[in-house]
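Problem: given the chain below (271 residues), write out its structure.
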Amino acid sequence: MGVDDRDALTQALALSYGAEYNKACSPQWAFQDIAPAIPYIGERFLEAPKKVLIYASAENLACDPTHRRVLEAWRRPKQIERAYRGGQLPDGMRCVMIEPITNGSLLMAARHALHKYDADLSFSRASAEDFLEEVTVANPSKFTIAGDANIDPAKKAMYWPPSKPYIVADLDLIKPDIIIVPRTILSKLSGRKVGLGASLRSFTILPNWQITSRTVRNARRVVPGKNLSKIELSPFSIWKLTRGAERWGMEYYLQWLDVIAKDWKQMSAVS
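Solution.
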């Protein structure tokens, strides 16, 4: 696809997702009649120095029944393209219906990881809003576990096989150079139940830790004996965060990542 084919890429993803959902529908354990959302393709994604796919985790429909009812009322094509229908928030961020993207925290962590991996990559340094338009973002888990509680599918392999054909579509159509993904999810996708290990090894993978307020706030306690206050702050820790993430202490989380990673250029070998 050429530099002007963002719309064609979005349409190809929508057609692939629609065909798969028509064939398989939702798994029994998931909320029914809500088709998975295609990735959000940034407006300048095809012009970026590298094609970067940032995977978050899973859509949380259990704790947002109002949003769930809205999605249930939408026709299938609108459900599939919902990442493009959230509009722009008052703070200027585009709402792609992925919370750690909308609040800026995962974008900050991803930009930090790219900088540590290769400081010469000329992605935006200005803001999370600008950076979003240079990358592609999505949830790798394409379904939400039904019920009243937010159950994270990341640690249980049984929840991942239904997402496989959609992830394959992401990889085949987007053709990313670099994938940023939580390492717990990476291990499930690479395992026998999903069997994407061989496919994923053909990409540069930067594994991170799933962005939650608890993970971020616990960052200083995870590495005993390390005084993170003496480690250089990330240049991206000044980016504006919203929706509560500004109180988490993301600057310490990024320092903690550096301690854990040690050498970001070796991170792609981690699974």
